[in-house]
Amino acid sequence: MKAVVTVMLKAGVLDPQGEAVRHALGGLGFQGVQAVRQGKVIELDLVHSDRAAAEADVRAMCEKLLANTVIESYRVEIA
Amino acid sequence: MKAAVVTYPGSNCDRDLAVALTRAGFTVARVWHKDTALPPGTDVVGVPGGFSHGDYLRCGAIAARAAIAPAIAAHAGRGGFVLGICNGFQVLTEMGLLPGVLMRNAGLRFVCRTVALTVGTADSAFTGGYGPGAAIRLPVAHHDGNYVADAATLDRLEGEGRVAFRYAEPVNGSARGIAGVLSENRRVLGMMPHPERASESAHGGTDGARLFAHLAALAVTAHGA
After folding, report:
1. I want to staple B89 with a disulfide (CB 3.0 to 4.6 A). Which of B84, B111, B134, B215 is the partner?
2. What pTM does this model have?
C-alpha cells in the first residue's frame, strides 16, 4: 500500500521561497501569477493491508515528524 | 558545575561551545546524539550550531527526534538549563521546548556577519550579565533564522518578557526582530546569534562571554556546587 503525504505551509504563513519562485516566473515572462506556495510531497511504501490503519499510522507520522503543525498543514492520500 | 554539549552529524559549533563553557568554568562532557542519557549531575545542556542530519525535512527536525532528545526534554522538565544556538535553536523549537519556528530568511540569502542586538530581558540566567536593553554585537551565520509564531504567541512572549535578544538591524525578517527566546521557566534559551563565537578577544568581540560567565555563576547558586 502506498501513501502520499502533501505538506504545505498554512494559509497566512509567509512563504519566502514561493515568493521568489513567483518573482522568477514573472522574470521569464509568465504574467498573471498572483501567488506561489511551495510545499513537499512525501511518498511512503507501507506493509499495511488495512486502509484505515494505514491512514491512522500516516497521520500519526505527520503529527510526530513529517509536518511541523505550527506552520504546516498536511494531507494524506492512501493509494 | 557541569555542562553537556551534544553533537549531531553535521554539528560544527559543538567544540566552540564546549571551549566557551570550559573557559567560563564548566566541566564539559561531550554527548553523542545516539546516547540515551546525560552525564549524572548535568546542570546545562548545550545544543550547538551547525547542521544536523543534513537538515533534511526541516532544520533540526531529525535531531529533535534523536535518541538523546528524551533525555534533553527530561532535563528541561526538571528545570535544568538548556542553551540552543543557531541549529540548536531550531532543534529546541522542533522538540517543542520553545515556541515558534525558524523559517528561511526573508531575503533568501545565507546571512553570515556580526550584527547589532539588544538584550530584551536581563531576567534569566543567560542574560543577567547584561543590562536590560544593552546593545551588544554577536555573529550570525544562518539560512533559516526567520522567527515565526502566531500573533498570540508573540504577544505572550513579549508580555512575559521572554524575548531574550532582538536584532537591532534588519537580518532575516524575524517576527518583531526576535533573535532569541526563553521558555516559560526562563531556563531554556534558543538564539540564532553565536555567543560562543564572540567569547574571547581573538574572535574580534567578547560580548558572548558574559552569557557563559553569568550562566556559570547561576548554575553554582542553583546547585550549591
Report:
1. B84
2. 0.94
Distances, alpha carbon A26 to alpha carbons A23, B17, B196, in Å: 5, 44, 43
Residue of A nearest to B144 (CA): A16
Query: Are B103 and A68 a contacting pair at CB < 8 A?
Result: no
**Is residue B99 a contact partner of residue B157, using CB atoms and an 8 Å limit?**
yes
pLDDT score of B224: 45
Q: Which residues of chain B have pLDDT under 50?
A: 224-225
In this prediction the ipTM stands at 0.87
Q: Average pLDDT over chain B, rounded to whole?
A: 96
CATH number of A63's domain: 3.30.1280.10
Residue A71 touches chain B, beta carbons under 8 Å: yes
**Known active-site residue B196:** yes
Task: Give every CB contact of residue B117 below 8 A, 6+ residues apart in sequence.
Answer: B135, B136, B137, B138, B165, B166, B167, B168, B179, B193
